[in-house]
Design brief:
The protein is of the alpha/beta class. The protein has helices at about 30-45, 60-70, 90-105, 120-130, 135-160; strands at about 20-25, 50-55, 75-85, 110-120. The protein has a 4-stranded parallel sheet with strand order 2-1-3-4, sandwiched between helices.
Length: about 180
């Protein structure tokens, strides 16, 4: 089934090449390879440096990104993998928990593009992963690059400019100590 067309933002331009870590779960190897190919091509268009690591499954992707965010020097991350619905509720757990983990990292300020496919069957995954079709790997890389661009923009604005707290302040209802009781 064809989807509606949608607007795609132009890739951001960078003064300094961003460093991206692609974290991929190659459980479905052909799908993962296509996702990585799309992500790498998109990152290269923006002049980004790319490293790739593999993890056993989608549930390990947020953990690997969290470790790399703490311990390595990357500007952003691309999460790639595929979860295909099976006969049990394990699908729901993997989809929900991997997505929740990535969202929580993002809310803490980690620049992440989520390219973990959650599909009903292999055919849906193949179309979404193919760089010549829906290119969800490329879309995830683009999302990470846009977040990196925003974080760099806002980091420049806060260095010496913007809100500065007063030297001293009082909380409503407090006194400064000069009044007698």
């Amino acid at each position: 089934m064809a989807g509606a067309s949608h607007y795609i933002l132009d890739l951001p331009k960078f003064d300094t090449a961003p460093r991206l870590l692609i974290v991929v779960a190659p459980y479905y190897k052909e799908i993962a390879d296509n996702l990585v190919a799309g992500a790498k091509a998109e990152a290269e268009k923006a002049g980004a440096y790319v490293d790739i690591v593999e993890v056993p499954g989608a549930l390990e992707i947020p953990s690997a990104i969290a470790m790399a965010a703490r311990m390595a020097d990357y500007d952003g991350f691309v999460a790639l993998g595929c979860v295909i619905r099976g006969e049990t509720t394990h699908y729901d757990t993997v989809c929900n928990d991997s997505s929740r983990g990535l969202t929580l990292l993002g809310l803490e300020g980690t620049c992440i593009g989520n390219g973990i496919l959650t599909v009903e069957n292999y055919e849906q995954a193949a179309v979404r992963a193919d760089p010549a079709e829906q290119n969800k790997g490329g879309g995830a890389a683009a999302a990470a690059l846009h977040l990196i661009s925003l974080s760099r923009k806002w980091a420049r604005r806060t260095k010496g400019i913007g809100f500065k707290p007063a030297e001293s302040f009082r909380i409503a209802g407090e006194t400064d100590g000069s009044e007698s009781a």
